[in-house]
Amino acid sequence: MGNVSLLLIIFFVSQFCEAQIIKNLPGSFGYYILKSGELVKLPEITATKKAPFSGPSSSWGIFGLDSKPELAVEEQRPTIFIYEPGLNSKQLRLGRLWYFEKLRAEDFHGDPPARESFKKSCGVERKSLLDFGKWTVVGTYTITGRTVPNRPELFRIRPKRKLPPGVYAVYDRTKFSSRSVQSASDILLRAFEVVGVEKKLPEYTPVSHPRVTILKCCLSDKLERIESLNVTKDNFFVSDNPIFTYAQIKGHRSGEVIEFIWYRPDGTVQVRQKRTLSLPPRSKIFHVYQEFRPLNLLMPGKWMLEVKVYGERVKCLPFQVSTK
Questions:
Q1: Closest among 90, 133, 126 to 111, alpha carbons compared
Q2: Beta strands 312-322; 235-237: pairing state
Q3: For 84-109, how does the pLDDT look when each residue is reduced to its tens digit (9 = 90+)?
Q4: 3 state DSSP class of 305
Q5: Sheet harboring 301-309: ordered strands across?
Q6: I want to staple 136 with a disulfide (CB 3.0 to 4.6 A). Which of 64, 219, 221, 318 is the partner?
Q7: Regarding beta strands 187-194 and 72-73, do their DSSP bridges make them parallel or antiparallel, or are they unpaired?
Q8: Cα separation values, 50 from 39, 43, 135, 140, 276, Å
Q9: Are 154 and 81 spatial neighbours (Cβ–Cβ below 8 Å)?
Q10: 238 and 312: one domain?
Q11: Quick one: DSSP state of residue 298?
């Protein structure tokens, strides 16, 4: 009974605080962030597209910000209020931005020409470093949100977990991505910086005696049979090319779940992938591969792939993402 009373008190206090915030909300439409107990309007920053050349068949270029936002907050789970009629909240995304001085020629398009025809079509080598000099998205972070009671035109969002220090932006996913887009128009973002000391990626250790054995597990940028896979990689470029995980599994039963968890250098999860294992062959060795296709450029630094089978951490694969 005491716990129920405490929850009710917390609920009513939070509703009262929210009501106070809403009461002081400016009359103009826009995006606002809660900073030190006060609502501050998030400035609109224009993201422009930079295209180093005109490629064949479609538009080239990456949208990005020319400079870091001036607005900074210390709250790692900031509350953002959006006062905008007709808002499609399902399309909202919270992305982290990263500054890239240069990018490879092929990074400026989501589906560049084949390696053998790239130079002939574009006039430069596929891996040539070209000037970029902008901030662009390197990963999205889960947000929770809802409309404010008695104010259906007012929407509130928060990140589900604490944000590591860095530069972030709220945007409509249908309009902005670090991948190439067809639109030639400039795009408005609402950006801010979370200040603080960034922590390193935690060290992960597999369990000592897992029920399921991973005989071989590796990463590659090529799709081929694991029996003929001779070249594995532990260093990838920031581009949005797919990364393949190959694994040989022994001792599993039909119906067991294998999970691939990709951790960014800031310790947050980029994506979780799950699949159900089928009946193993007579050899008792099961071959599985998983494709990770990034939606944006990858954050530079040390990454970690954690492989779990039925909740047991059976393998950890560190790898590097670099700009060179």
A1: 126
A2: parallel
A3: 877 788 889 999 999 999 998 888 87
A4: strand
A5: 235-237, 312-322, 301-309, 257-263, 269-276
A6: 64
A7: parallel
A8: 33, 22, 11, 21, 42
A9: yes
A10: yes
A11: P
In 3D, which of 82, 24, 276, 63 has the Cα closest to residue 174? 63
For the chain, the domain total comes to 2
Any idea what the CATH number is for the domain that residue 286 is in?
2.60.40.1930
Residue 311 to residues 240, 267, 272, 273, 281, Cα–Cα distance (Å): 29, 19, 13, 13, 23
Query: Which H helix or E strand runs over 158?
Result: strand 151-159
- Residue 82 burial class via C-beta count within 10 angstroms: exposed 0-12, middle 13-18, buried 19 and up: buried
Examine residue 91 and state whether it is found in any structural domain, yes or no.
yes
Closest CA to 155 of 45, 42, 37, 32: 32
Same domain, 170 and 238: no
CA distance 225 to 231: 12
Whole-number percent of the chain with pLDDT over 70: 83
Q: Which of 222-226, 260-264, 285-289, 310-314 has the lowest mean pLDDT?
A: 222-226
Domain final residue, candidates 161, 194, 227: 194
DSSP β-ladder status, 301-309 and 312-322: antiparallel
